[in-house]
Design brief:
single chain; 3-stranded antiparallel beta sheet; 1 helix; OB fold (Dihydrolipoamide Acetyltransferase, E2P); mainly beta; 8 strands; 2 domains; 5-stranded mixed barrel
Length: 138
């Protein structure tokens, strides 16, 4: 569990289904039935066709590859100092979307682009669960 003094997301009416899915330990993003595209981050209208009448939430596999990453050695906020060094990455999900998150439960110095990862969930408190990624089991 993370300390409650850390900056945490504040779910909105638009993003609440994403955070509810994370709380239930799966990834969900919006899908537009008109343009047939997945959408992340959560939005009120599709960024491709600007329609709001064809959006639905769909479950993702939670599997992907490290697209890019950096090792954070100096915390940007005092609440993260105890975690340094840690890996912050862009993960390209199997479904094609890219998502920023942490790679956890590994030595960040051993990571490389293209490594297989899978989602894991950090239950910060009873309201917020953060999706993070770990190296996939081979």
């Amino acid at each position: 569990m993370l300390s409650l003094d850390r900056p945490l997301p504040k779910p909105t009416d638009i993003s609440r289904p994403y955070w509810d899915a994370a709380k239930n330990h799966y990834l969900a993003v919006q899908y537009c039935h008109h343009c047939k595209e997945l959408i992340f981050y959560p939005r009120a209208v599709c960024p491709n066709d600007l329609r709001d009448d064809g959006l639905e939430w769909v479950r993702l596999s939670g599997k992907g590859k490290i697209y890019s990453y950096t090792v954070i050695r100096k915390a940007a906020h005092p609440a993260f100092m105890a975690d340094t060094p840690y890996a912050y990455a862009i993960v390209e999900l199997e479904e094609g979307l890219r998502m920023a998150s942490n790679i956890v439960d590994c030595d960040p110095e051993t990571l490389s682009i293209g490594m297989d990862v899978e989602v894991t969930f950090d239950e910060v408190n009873e309201d917020i669960t953060l999706p993070k990624f770990k190296l996939a089991k081979q």
